[in-house]
Amino acid sequence: MNAPVADQEYHVLAFERTNEAAAFVAALARYLNSPAGAAFVKAPATVEVWSFSPSEEKVEVYLSDGALAAVSAVFTPVPVIAKRPGAALAKDCVMIIGGGQRPAAWGLAEAERRLTAR
Predict the structure, then answer these.
(1) Where are the domains of the chain?
(2) Are the C-beta atoms of residues 94 and 51 closer than 8 Å to each other?
(3) CA–CA separation, 88 vs 100, rounded Å?
(4) What confidence tens digit (pLDDT) does each residue in 40-75 have?
(5) 8 A C-beta contact, residue 40 and residue 32
């Protein structure tokens, strides 16, 4: 998938530092790779995580409803700052989790690499 689904709502999280976003994404990837988290990725395309870096350090992370459900199962409160349809997300955002694939149990370095890849 090259772009978020235009009419699907995404939950926006904003991080001031790339390493904070990477820690969040790595923890989510590890959870989704666990037996408990695997249930969230059984149905294709239910869990999507996209990212966009508006500046050198700041990162926005966009969660589908399925991704938010997975996050909410283990992290509270989830620091959602807004909801936006896919059509309103940054045009050059990048999918970091999704496509019906269960992510590996990423460490911090792998999550940061994915967040900063373009």
Answers:
(1) 9-116
(2) yes
(3) 23
(4) 877 655 899 999 988 878 999 999 999 999 999 998
(5) yes
* Beta bridge partners of residue 63, listed in sequence order: 11, 49
Place of tokens 């991080």: 15
pTM of the model: 0.91
| Secondary structure class of 10 (helix, strand, coil) | strand
Count Cα atoms within 13 angstroms, Cβ side, for 64.
Answer: 23
What letters, b where the CB count within 10 A reaches 16 and e where it falls short, cover 56-75? Answer: eeebbbbbbebbbebbeeee
SS3 for 107?
Answer: coil
Give the angle subtended at the CA of 41 by the CAs of 36 and 43, to the nearest 5°: 130
